[in-house]
């Protein structure tokens, strides 16, 4: 399974969880609790990722980053979006300098 396959499969699972009982699924419970809970979880995971990076242990950085990405994917699914939307935006930015891209946002 390629990395892109992993994102696609995870996106499928996250969609399936929308119809599951929140008592039976962590992701379904996040959806049931709503956007604020999902956003809070992303904030917590971002902070844990920062702490791991400051600690400098590669395995811990990867572990925390996986949690952060996972919860970001939950947010995307909650909003009717998926990883391909983000990948498309990243692809669009190839060949643009960060300065040019930021200037185009006005």
In short:
This protein has helices at 3-17, 26-33, 35-55, 58-78, 83-93, 98-103. By secondary structure, the protein is mainly α. The model has no long low-confidence stretch (mean pLDDT 93).
Descriptive key words:
single chain; about 110 residues; mainly alpha; 6 helices; about 75% helix; globular
Helical segment tally?
Answer: 6
Distance between the termini: 40 Å
Radius of gyration: 16 Å
In percent, how helical is the residue content?
A: over 70%
Major sheet characteristics: none
Give the low-confidence spans. none
Mean pLDDT: 93
What is the global morphology?
A: globular
Textual characterization of the structure:
It is a single chain. By secondary structure, this protein is mainly alpha-helical. Helices cover 77% and strands 0% of the residues. It has 6 helices and no strands. α3 (35-55) packs antiparallel against α4. The longest helix has 21 residues, at 35-55. It starts with a helix and ends with a helix. The mean pLDDT is 93.
Topology readout:
Layout (H helix, E strand, L loop, with lengths): L2 H15 L8 H8 L1 H21 L2 H21 L4 H11 L4 H6 L3
């Amino acid at each position: 399974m390629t990395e892109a396959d992993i994102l696609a499969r995870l996106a499928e699972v996250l969609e399936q969880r929308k119809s599951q009982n929140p008592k039976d699924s962590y992701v379904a419970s996040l959806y049931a609790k709503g956007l604020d809970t999902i956003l809070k979880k992303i904030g917590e995971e971002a902070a844990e990722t920062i702490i791991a990076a400051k600690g400098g242990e590669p395995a811990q950085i990867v572990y925390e980053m996986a949690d952060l990405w996972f919860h970001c994917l939950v947010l995307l699914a909650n909003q009717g979006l998926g990883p391909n939307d983000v990948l498309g935006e990243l692809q669009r930015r190839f060949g643009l300098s960060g300065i040019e891209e930021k200037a185009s946002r006005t």
